[in-house]
């Protein structure tokens, strides 16, 4: 009986800690980086989405996932690399968040799509960074096709975000939101070729949104993914 009471108290304590952490991080991001959002479409004019969507964005900083979650704060979940969930530095928090969908980015993994589908069915939007990891040279990595498969198989619209990736005190981090688009839903397993084409389409779209977030009036051309291999870090 005493042991059960201890477990209940411990559970309540960790819930309180997580609430403090989540709201504390959100307050910090919104206060110090004062994100400025620009909505280009007509159907989405705020972060309070009328329906669950697959939210995708470029990945320039480790703060990007936190910022997107801070902006789309309600009814959302996020796909996180499984190795990060299992990392001792993050495991204590990520393993306790109910809105985290782990994905094995180094091996064939289909379980994450099933979990993400359940999140959409519950009315939660799913945040995905298709590049899989940060890129610091200003370009974009190849987009993995998982988000396209999820959107196509569920019919959920894809909402594209372009983030300037600049997190400096005194600078307003800029986020440009495009018009959501639906990838046609089909029965059976969609072809890998079509998914790759749609992924590249959204990669180019987010590239343009990112350039607008950076304040550029002329959008430089982004070479196809085959011509922009992932950068080799020292």
Topology overview:
Layout: H1 2-32, E1 36-39, E2 54-57, H2 64-71, E3 76-81, H3 82-85, H4 88-94, E4 100-103, H5 111-121, E5 125-128, H6 146-154, E6 158-163, E7 174-177, H7 192-213
Parallel strand pairs: 1-7, 2-5, 2-6, 3-4, 3-5
Antiparallel strand pairs: 6-7
Description:
It is a single chain. With 234 residues, the chain is an alpha/beta fold. The protein has one domain (33-227). It is 39% helix and 14% strand. It contains 7 helices and 7 strands; from the N terminus they run αββαβααβαβαββα. The chain has helices at residues 2-32, 64-71, 82-85, 88-94, 111-121, 146-154, 192-213; strands spanning 36-39, 54-57, 76-81, 100-103, 125-128, 158-163, 174-177. It has a 7-stranded mixed β-sheet, sandwiched between helices. The longest helix is centred in the N-terminal third of the chain and has 31 residues, at 2-32. The radius of gyration is 18 Å and the shape is globular. It starts with a helix and ends in a 21-residue tail after the last helix. The mean pLDDT is 87.
What pattern of helices and strands is seen along the backbone?
A: HEEHEHHEHEHEEH
Taking all Cα atoms into account, the compactness measure Rg is 18 Å
Main sheet summary: 7 strands, mixed
Distance between the termini: 55 Å
| DSSP strand content | 5-15%
Shape: globular
Side by side, the strands of the main sheet go 1-7-6-2-5-3-4
| Helical fraction | 25-40%
Mean of pLDDT? 87
| Class from secondary-structure proportions | alpha/beta
The number of domains is 1
